């Protein structure tokens, strides 16, 4: 009596398809060149490899390899730039910078205190005139919006103009140190306009954000700002 074949013999399973070779993107330069040489040696002499196909494979490999090299290069460049920016920022500690905002800090002026006396106070800012101002007025407000001081600026100013307030109100009384808002109204070309004002701030320390590597400056007024917000260094 004939023995029945097993299910695998009666219904043979198709052979597993051979694993596809790595794509060009997965190859290193040595493996790619070895494959190309073998392809040239074993090609059918009656049907040689088409030049365009050959150039296409080279271009594909060159593109992938080039992108990998660019990624590596840009990674190194980014690290170098972050390091350079951190060193530059570290050199700013203890110096004043011109910031985007018009809220300045009235603070003690170093070296002005005599024995038994409090040091003089000062708030510095830059007024960015963009046209010839026939007249201009400086206004100082506390953080509640109350006007504490005003004064006329010299006429005819047409460029950046530095102002310094000693912290005294209109009656000459000394106000407390802290933050104050600075603004300027000017008459330019016969038109009343608000002139941009940029407060000066002291850099207290430098911070580097974890993950992003962004460099930030910690200012004396408690703000933390990016290097790209600094208009100039004093």
Secondary structure topology:
Layout: H1 7-10, H2 29-41, H3 51-90, E1 96-98, E2 103-108, E3 121-128, E4 133-142, E5 147-153, E6 160-165, E7 178-188, E8 191-195, E9 197-208, E10 215-219, E11 224-226, E12 232-233
Antiparallel strand pairs: 1-9, 1-12, 2-3, 2-7, 3-6, 3-9, 4-5, 4-7, 7-8, 9-10, 10-11
Task: Please characterize this protein's 3D structure.
There is one protein chain. The protein has about 230 residues and is an alpha+beta fold. It has two domains: about 25-90; about 95-234, Immunoglobulin-like (Sandwich). Helices cover about 25% and strands about 35% of the residues. It contains three helices and twelve strands. Strands 1, 2, 3, 4, 5, 6, 7, 8, 9, 10, 11 and 12 form a twelve-stranded antiparallel beta sheet that branches. A hairpin with a 6-residue loop joins strand 9 and strand 10. The chain is elongated, with a radius of gyration of 36 Å.
CATH architecture of the largest domain: Sandwich
End-to-end separation in angstroms reads 106 Å
Gyration radius, in Å: 36 Å
Percent of residues in helices comes to 10-25%
What key attributes describe this structure?
alpha+beta; 3 helices; Immunoglobulin-like
Short description:
By secondary structure, the protein is an alpha+beta fold.
